[in-house]
Specification:
The protein is built from eight helices and seven strands, in the order ααααααβββββββαα. By secondary structure, the protein is α+β, with helices and mostly antiparallel strands.
C-alpha cells in the first residue's frame, strides 16, 4: 500500500495543461504539455520577437562581433546569443512592457484556457545567460551542463536539429529555458568556445566575474562583460595557434 501511495503522489505532481495553473521548475511535465511548450508556444514567441526586433538590433550586434574580431563561422552564434540576452534583459527591467508580456497579451485567447503556459512564460522571463562546462553526455542532444559560477549541474536537451553537439569538457555560453523536472533547453545554440581555450577561460573566469560583479547592476551586464573578456581570450589563443600550428592556417 505504501508503494502505491508514493506512485500516486508522483502522478499528482505532474504538470499538465489540464490540471495545473502554476509552473514549477522541479515538477515533471507531461509529454503533451512539453510538446506544446517547445514546438508551439515558444516557437511562435521566438518568431514574433525576431520579426519585430532583430533587424533593429542588428547594427549593434554586428558592431559587438566586429569589435571582438569574431571569426566568420562563429559570427551568427555571437549575434543570436547577444540578441536574446538583450530581450531577456528588457523583460527583467520592465516585464509589463517586454516582448514576453506583449506575446502573452496578443495570444490571450489562445493561452487563457491553459494558465500553466502563461505561468511558464512568466518564469522564462527570469532566465539569465550563463557560462557552462559540458559534463556527461547521454547522447548528442541530451547532456549535463554545469554552471561554472555555482557548479550546479543541469540536464539539457537540444531541440534545434541544426545545433552543434557540444564536446564533453568544453565551455559554452548561452541562455537556458526551463522545461520542468529540472530539465532545460537552450533558446538558441550555445556559443561554443574553442576547446583549446577551455583551460585559460576556466582559470580566469571567477576573477573576471567577481571584477564585473562589483561594477554592474544586473546579471545580464555581468554576462556581457565577462563574455566580452572570454571572446578576447579565445581570439588571442586562436591567433597564437594559427602562428604555431599549420592546421590552424
Amino acid at each position: 500500500m505504501g508503494k502505491k501511495e508514493s506512485v500516486e503522489k508522483v502522478v499528482d505532481f505532474e504538470q499538465t495543461a489540464v490540471n495545473t495553473k502554476t509552473f514549477r521548475l522541479h515538477y515533471p511535465v507531461s509529454e503533451e504539455l512539453r510538446r506544446i511548450m517547445v514546438s508551439e508556444v515558444f516557437r511562435d514567441f521566438m518568431i514574433d520577437v525576431v520579426q519585430l526586433n532583430y533587424d533593429a538590433c542588428l547594427p549593434l550586434l554586428n558592431e559587438f562581433a566586429a569589435e571582438h574580431d569574431v571569426r566568420e563561422e562563429k559570427w551568427n552564434d555571437v549575434l543570436h546569443n547577444i540578441f536574446w540576452c538583450k530581450v531577456f534583459y528588457d523583460s527583467n527591467e520592465d516585464f509589463w512592457n517586454s516582448c514576453i508580456s506583449d506575446f502573452i497579451y496578443k495570444n490571450n485567447d489562445r493561452l487563457k484556457n491553459t494558465p500553466i503556459l502563461i505561468s511558464w512564460l512568466e518564469t522564462c522571463a527570469k532566465a539569465v545567460p550563463k557560462f557552462y562546462f559540458i559534463g556527461h553526455k547521454y547522447n548528442d542532444r541530451v547532456f549535463v551542463a554545469i554552471d561554472i559560477l555555482d557548479e550546479k549541474p543541469l540536464n539539457v536537451i537540444v531541440y534545434d536539429p541544426l545545433a552543434v553537439s557540444p564536446k564533453k569538457g568544453e565551455i559554452a555560453a548561452g541562455l537556458l529555458i526551463p522545461l520542468g523536472d529540472g530539465l532545460y533547453f537552450p533558446i538558441v545554440d550555445f556559443y561554443h568556445f574553442d576547446f583549446e581555450a577551455r583551460e585559460a577561460i576556466a582559470n580566469c573566469f571567477h576573477f573576471h566575474y567577481d571584477k564585473y560583479l562589483k561594477i554592474n547592476d544586473t546579471p545580464y551586464d555581468i554576462f556581457l562583460n565577462v563574455f566580452s573578456t572570454m571572446l578576447q581570450i579565445e581570439g588571442i589563443l586562436f591567433k597564437d595557434n594559427q602562428k604555431n600550428d599549420p592546421q590552424y592556417s
